[in-house]
Each structure stands twice: as C-alpha cells, then as structure tokens.
Automatic annotation (TrEMBL):
The lineage of its organism: Eukaryota, Fungi, Dikarya, Ascomycota, Pezizomycotina. SUPFAM superfamilies: Glucocorticoid receptor-like (DNA-binding domain), NAD(P)-binding Rossmann-fold domains. This is GATA-type domain-containing protein. InterPro entries: ADH-like_C (IPR013149), NAD(P)-bd_dom_sf (IPR036291), Zinc_ADH-like (IPR052711), Znf_GATA (IPR000679), Znf_NHR/GATA (IPR013088). PROSITE patterns: GATA_ZN_FINGER_1, GATA_ZN_FINGER_2. GO terms for molecular function: sequence-specific DNA binding; zinc ion binding. It comes from the Eukaryota. One of its GO terms (biological process) is regulation of DNA-templated transcription. Residues 17-67 form the GATA-type domain. Keywords: Metal-binding, Zinc, Zinc-finger.
Length: 204
C-alpha cells in the first residue's frame, strides 16, 4: 500500500476516497489495486485486511447487511454491549419477518417504528412480541407543516445528508435510469440526487 501527503492547495485534481467518498484527509493512500483511499480507510484496510464500513466512519457503533447475511439478527446480537445486550427501538421500512427477527433483540417494552412494507404487505405479530410488551407504531411522511419544520431544522443545525451520486438535468434520461439501476443492485450508500438545471427549475 502506498501513501502520499494530501495537498489541499491544489485545485486541478480533487481525489475522492473510493471507499467512503471523502475528499478531505491528511494523507492519501492506495490499495493493492491502485484505488485511492483516505488515510482512515487505508489504515483500516492495512490493519484488518478488509474495507472500512462507511456507516462506522459516520459514527455507527455497528451494523449488518441483511442482503448478504441470512442470520443478520444473530450477527447483530453479537455486536451489542455485554452490559446492555438489547435495542431500545427498531425503525423499519421493509416489513416481512422484521418482528419475528427483531423481537429477540428488543428490550421489554421496546418499540418498532414502521414506515413502510417493501418486502411484504403483511407482518406476523407473534406471541413473543406480546409477552415482551413490544409497541408497534406506524409512521407516515407527515404534513407540509412538518416538512417545512424539518427543512428549517436541517438548515439551523447544518445537517449534511450523505449523498451517493448526483446526476444533472431532468432530460438526462440515461443518468436518471442509472440511479434506478443503483437502487436495483444495492450500490448506493446515501441519497441519489437529480440536480435540476435552471430551465427545468423555472418551469416547475
């Protein structure tokens, strides 16, 4: 693995980490295939022999990939702290067997907040959830007033969303279709954005 000092004064080239997509780092590195990595991702790869998880770089304590781990709830259970081996709440938009799987991880009186059912239109409510007094709460998108308040909060607190990729223009059909392909293939990490041009914005 190679390392080079980051030159923040150069505007001609702006390296971006292949793994976490940051453009700010004290040192740029490369993996064995020559891909550019930030200092943190490069060191993690060197020490652990695998890529650094993007969610952990953003502050997550742990996590699992339900698409590649068929026993994800058991994997997640091993990541919980020994002195507090349970979750307070689960926020889910998939549905399906989420109750049967997550109820084992939730504390007694825990909450499942459901905002969608992309896997299946029904969820089985089992006896274990009843005995643990699990609370299921439905969540919708909210009103226009709540949306306005959210935008104001984002501006006030300077919340910066994670953006996976941006395509420009509503007439960029190929670019927009590529965003849908990213979703189909599960490639995105963060928001997929269509940036309006001035002409399209004027028509809207």
């Amino acid at each position: 693995m190679m390392a080079t000092p980051a030159n923040h004064d150069r505007e001609s080239t702006k390296p971006v980490c292949f793994n976490c997509e940051t453009s700010t780092t004290p040192l740029w590195r490369r993996d064995d295939e020559g891909k550019v990595l930030c200092n943190a991702c490069g060191l993690f790869l060197k020490l652990h022999g695998r890529a650094r998880e993007r969610a952990k770089k953003l502050g997550a304590a742990g996590g699992v990939n339900y698409k590649t781990d068929s026993r994800w709830e058991k994997t997640l259970a091993t990541q919980l702290p020994a002195d507090r081996p349970y979750l307070d709440a689960v926020i889910d938009g998939a549905g399906g067997d989420i109750i049967a799987r997550s109820v084992r991880l939730l504390k007694a009186g825990g909450v499942i907040s459901q905002y969608g059912m992309t896997v299946a239109p029904k969820m089985e409510w089992n006896m274990q959830a009843v005995l643990k007094n699990i609370d299921l709460k439905g969540s919708t998108m909210g009103s226009r007033l709540e949306f306005r308040d959210m935008i104001a909060f984002v501006g006030e607190k300077k919340v910066v969303p994670v953006v996976s990729r941006v395509v420009k223009g509503l007439t960029n059909i190929e670019g927009i279709e590529s965003l849908f392909r990213d979703m189909d293939e599960g490639k995105q990490f963060g928001k997929l954005v269509i940036e309006f041009d001035d002409e399209a914005s004027a028509k809207l």
